């Protein structure tokens, strides 16, 4: 609102590059307002500990996303500058073969260094944000039940924010785990990220009456990667155990079904092999699922798996029938021999 320009003096450490927050390329912007990107450009270096926002911005889908990304951190989001790609060697058509080989080797070293740095940043985020969530779960022994409150109430807003950010944590764990840990050597880290992501999605599905369609897709995807990734699932860490304990108490208080999950850590792969089918089956049944860019791909995988399952069941049934008939024939032969 335009009256905000009279409140700027209350925030002496913040630089406001205009009168108030407005949409990009709008009349209000031309009249002296500022966009979110201009606000971030003016303040990022002023706050080395990070800039965090609660709730959602008033004007989504703007170009600030070309320079900044949102990283889930508890029930807020941290806005971070997107790191540019490092300078790479630039060969030409006239670059000699031996020089080209050196450039390729240098490029591989640069990318390996960038990836190692990204993995380190991810690990730090995973631990720091898990501590934040642990504090949240201790302070909030239960989230407001969404079905009890109207969308205009603070209780509904708090509950909606809680589950949205919880699912976003799961999505970020899954996305970065798949992206960064894609070698046999890093398979344990990928498995840990996939299992923790799946746990967050399972908790949200059990608790959130308005569980989003894309979260069902991500839940199924997490299960697929648990099945595909080499090795066994790691034991639950202290943060995951805290989450499950919180969810168990919360579920009992609300009279809801308990959070799904394997009976033991050693059963994660078997559980995931079945769970992804139900998650993706529910996703494909949602009316708005067809708008998802990965709908056709998921549908193809799901139908292929289900056909294989049916074929396997049919083959088992046929084998069982053949075995029964064989047993009957043997019994008949025995009776005939006994009679003779």
SSE layout and pairing:
Blueprint: H1 27-30, H2 36-43, E1 51-53, E2 68-73, E3 76-81, H3 97-139, H4 154-180, H5 187-207, H6 213-228, H7 238-254, H8 268-285, H9 295-339
Antiparallel strand pairs: 1-3, 2-3
Helix pairs in contact: 3-7, 4-5, 4-6, 5-6, 5-7, 6-8, 8-9
What does this structure look like?
With 340 residues, this protein is mainly alpha-helical. It is built from nine helices and three strands; from the N terminus they run H-H-E-E-E-H-H-H-H-H-H-H. The chain has helices spanning 27-30, 36-43, 97-139, 154-180, 187-207, 213-228, 238-254, 268-285, 295-339; strands at 51-53, 68-73, 76-81. It has a three-stranded antiparallel β-sheet. A hairpin with a 2-residue loop joins strand 2 and strand 3. The longest helix has 45 residues, at 295-339. The N and C termini lie far apart (104 Å). The mean pLDDT is 88.
Judging from the principal axes of the Cα atoms, what is the shape? globular
Q: Uncertain spans, ≥5 residues at pLDDT below 50?
A: none
Q: What is the H/E order?
A: HHEEEHHHHHHH
Please list the strands of the largest sheet in the order they lie side by side.
Answer: 1-3-2
CA radius of gyration? 27 Å
Summed over residues and divided by their number, the pLDDT gives a mean of 88
Roughly what fraction of the amino acids lie in strands? under 5%
Largest sheet: 3 strands, antiparallel
Distance from N terminus to C terminus (CA atoms, Å) equals 104 Å
Task: Tell me the helix content.
Answer: 55-70%
Structural class: mainly alpha
Total strand count, please? 3
Number of helices: 9
């Amino acid at each position: 609102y335009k009256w905000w320009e009279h409140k700027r003096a209350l925030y002496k450490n913040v630089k406001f590059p205009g009168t108030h927050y407005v949409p990009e390329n709008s009349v209000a912007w031309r009249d002296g307002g500022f966009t979110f990107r201009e606000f971030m450009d003016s303040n990022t270096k002023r706050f080395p500990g990070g800039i965090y926002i609660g709730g959602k911005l008033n004007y989504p889908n703007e170009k600030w996303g070309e320079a900044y990304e949102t990283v889930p951190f508890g029930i807020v989001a941290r806005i971070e500058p997107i790191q540019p790609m490092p300078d790479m060697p630039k060969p030409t058509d006239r670059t000699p073969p031996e020089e080209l080989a050196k450039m390729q080797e240098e490029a591989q070293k640069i990318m390996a260094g960038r990836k190692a740095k990204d993995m380190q940043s991810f690990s730090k985020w995973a631990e720091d944000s898990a501590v934040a969530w642990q504090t949240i779960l201790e302070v909030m022994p239960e989230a407001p039940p969404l079905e009890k409150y109207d969308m205009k109430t603070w209780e509904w807003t708090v509950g909606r924010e809680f589950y949205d950010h919880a699912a976003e944590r799961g999505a970020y764990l899954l996305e970065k785990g798949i992206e960064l840990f894609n070698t046999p050597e890093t398979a344990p880290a990928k498995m840990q990220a996939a299992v923790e992501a799946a746990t967050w999605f399972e908790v949200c599905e059990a608790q959130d009456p308005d569980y989003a369609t894309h979260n069902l897709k991500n839940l199924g995807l997490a299960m697929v990667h648990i099945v595909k990734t080499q090795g066994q699932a790691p034991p639950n860490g202290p943060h995951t155990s805290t989450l499950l304990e919180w969810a168990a108490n919360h579920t009992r208080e609300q009279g809801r079904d308990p959070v799904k999950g394997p009976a033991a850590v050693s059963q994660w792969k078997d559980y995931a092999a079945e769970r992804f089918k139900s998650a993706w089956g529910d996703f494909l049944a949602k009316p708005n699922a067809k708008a998802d860019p990965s709908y056709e791909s998921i549908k193809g995988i799901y139908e292929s798996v289900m056909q294989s399952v049916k074929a396997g069941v049919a083959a088992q049934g046929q084998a069982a029938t053949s075995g029964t008939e064989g047993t009957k024939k043997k019994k008949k032969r025995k009776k005939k021999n006994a009679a003779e």
